Amino acid sequence: MTPAKAARTGLMGGTFNPIHYGHLLIAENACEQFGLDRIIFMPTGHSPHKDERQILDAGRRCEMVRLAIADNPRFSCSDYEITKSGVSYTYLTLRAFQDRFADHSLYFIMGADSLADFDSWRHPEEISRLCTILAAVRDELNMEHLLPVREQLEQKYATHIEFINTPGFSVSSRLIRQRVADSRSVRYLVPEVVRQYISRHQIYR
Q: Of 49, 65, 86, 110, which has the fewest beta carbons less than 10 angstroms from its beta carbon?
């Protein structure tokens, strides 16, 4: 009898302040390119890399993620990092999810621009051991620069890093917050349910 193929689970962390179509495109392309069975969106709690004074409360960020992904059966949202105590370090999150999904192969989705800072993350060697890293490439990033960075990290940590290729979509959460603050439209930058939530609750104004 042929053994069952291990499920492939992607973990996509981020502040999602707010979630937008760029995030969703990355997740959808990761599923398509690497045969992922599911992606768990994980809004950050206490991030070591962000100024928390600029971040909306976790409950509302999580609710916007749930609204944005409700129509995709492969997508789910976890409040693991926003309910745990202490700083949200990626290696600890990966350890916890390895215990939860012991028979799954884990894939961690990150921005390709974060590769240059990967050495400064807490226990990058542990992250590399626990998952395959999928780095989302943006159009403006120079692949000639990224390729040697990837090679160096793969050799240093005996890991495997893949690039997620996504259609060009120039949007950021900061841009959306600024447009809302300036009373400008964010239609077609975020899912309509997220736009309505922002408007209804007067967020980012």
A: 86
42: Cα separation from own chain's centroid: 7
The count of C-alpha atoms lying within 13 angstroms of the C-alpha of 11, restricted to the half-sphere facing its C-beta, is 29
What pLDDT does 1 receive?
46
Nearest to 18 by CA among 185, 197, 164: 197
Separation of alpha carbons 106 and 109, rounded Å: 10
Give me the pLDDT at residue 5, please: 67
Residue 59's pLDDT is 92
At residue 49, the pLDDT reads 53
φ/ψ of 18, rounded to 5, equals: -105, 175
Q: Name every residue whose Cβ is closer than 8 Å to that of residue 37 and which is 6 or more positions away in sequence.
A: 7, 8, 9, 74
Task: Look up residue 114 and give its DSSP letter.
Answer: G
Q: Helices H, strands E: what count in the chain?
A: 8, 6
Positions in the chain whose pLDDT score sits under 50 = 1-3
CB atoms within 10 A of CB 33: 14
